[in-house]
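Hi there,

I know you've been waiting on this one. I reran it after we fixed the sequence typo, so this is the corrected version. Both the input and the resulting structure follow.
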Amino acid sequence: MTAVDAGRRDGATPDTSPGLGLEILRPGSNEVTEWSFSAPEHTVLLWRRGIVADKQVAFAGKRMRQVSARRSGIWVVPAGDSASALARDTVSVEYMRLLLPTHLITTGSLRQVVSQTDPVLHGLLERIVSTAGREDAVARLLRDALFDSARLHVLDAYGTDRRLPIERGRELDHVTRDQLSAYLHDSFDRDVQLDALADIAGMSVRSFRRAFRVAFGTTPHQYLLDLRVGRAQALLTTTRLSAAEIAALTGFSNPSHFATTFKRRVGVSPTRFRADAQ
């Protein structure tokens, strides 16, 4: 028998956003596996893959119930609650665990949920996992945005009170917008931290995200990508630099990431763009 508790890490841990934690847990293949979860944070478990002959779950004080182990199956354990599970004949099991501190669930709490599937949340978490190991500015901004989207999705889908508090934060004035624009234009080829941008505006990161979108019509992540791709277009048409050299000069983590992003935004590969421009 293998027991897995909330404090044990059995798999890779992707990079996390401030205040949130995401882990991939791999209890392995066993005749009998027991799980127990109890934490001061909200715990959201999502089945990733694996084979299970029989699975039962229960929240504290309630009877065990039979559930199916399905891809994207979700199990929500609210902060302070405890839950357990028993599975038989597990093979190559993997699941994700998302920890949400209570202060990030801004109204009410979360409901106890089991035996539902959530492909939307699964897609968000897989996209976060795909950026693991990358420390370039675009990857960090993307992770922040994806974590916030996951948080809001969980709050909307499983919250006890779906009303979000009305946020009447200040807008970005002309001077601050110019400062941010100048900073991003000067730093697009280097690491850009979201909290550094928020500091320029004198805001919290959460308030800054909203204010930036209102002021610029897009997110910091997308704005930075536009700058990088625009600079890459100029270098492709005015220099003989290779795609790898241009990727490095414009802040992309590697040539493959540069080529994929460029084609997605421009519609053609960097090589094709250069050839068409000649």
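Quick highlight: The chain has two domains: 2-158, 174-277.

Best,
R. S.
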